[in-house]
């Protein structure tokens, strides 16, 4: 009886050890139907300054100064006025996501994001910024994390303040300069 008990225990311990593998062989594959972004209520932080007066109220020839957006742990999170593009900025890069009209494939999936380094290096990505605390931009200029942002209805322009390199992001595509 003792030999049977020891054998059963050895088999159970061996079976338990097999179930504790640290990796699973195979390759993860995303299902294209799940590429839509989840909807989360995104809290909007209060604006750091009151909205600027309508352009008719500005003196002729006077250009308003760019508003500096507040950083959170070295990042600034923005959303375009249309709500179709969201971005995160840091001194190291600008990353934006949107539903591009005709994006390139990345790993067999259509890209929904783009990243730009201060020296102008662009890369397409597939990802999701998640529930970021984005500030909604109006159509005007802003400064954030070493970048100048010029928001317009036709697209959003990001220029690195140190290198002068940048990109214009719109759902129709991305142009670097």
> Roughly how much helix do the residues carry, as a percent range?
under 10%
Q: Return Rg in Å.
A: 24 Å
| Strand ordering within the main sheet | 1-10-11-12-13-14
Biggest sheet overview: 6 strands, mixed
pLDDT averaged over residues: 77
> Helical element count?
1
* Distance, first to last CA: 81 Å
Signal peptide: 1-21
Keywords: Signal
Region (Disordered): 21-70
Biased composition (Pro residues): 40-57
Summarize the structure.
The protein is mostly beta strands and 177 residues long. The protein has one helix spanning 2-18, and strands at 67-68, 76-79, 85-89, 94-98, 105-106, 109-110, 113-116, 122-125, 135-136, 141-144, 147-152, 155-160, 166-170, 173-176. It is built from 1 helix and 14 strands.
Could you walk me through the main structural features you see in this protein, from its secondary elements to its overall organization?
With 177 residues, the chain is mostly beta strands. It has a domain at 42-49 and 65-177. The protein contains one helix and 14 strands, in the order αββββββββββββββ. It has one helix at 2-18; strands at residues 67-68, 76-79, 85-89, 94-98, 105-106, 109-110, 113-116, 122-125, 135-136, 141-144, 147-152, 155-160, 166-170, 173-176. The strands form three sheets. Strands 1-10-11-12-13-14 form a six-stranded mixed β-sheet, with no helix packed on it. Strands 8-7-4-3-2-9 form a six-stranded mixed β-sheet, with no helix packed on it. β3 and β4 form a beta hairpin. The longest helix is centred in the first third of the chain and has 17 residues, at 2-18.
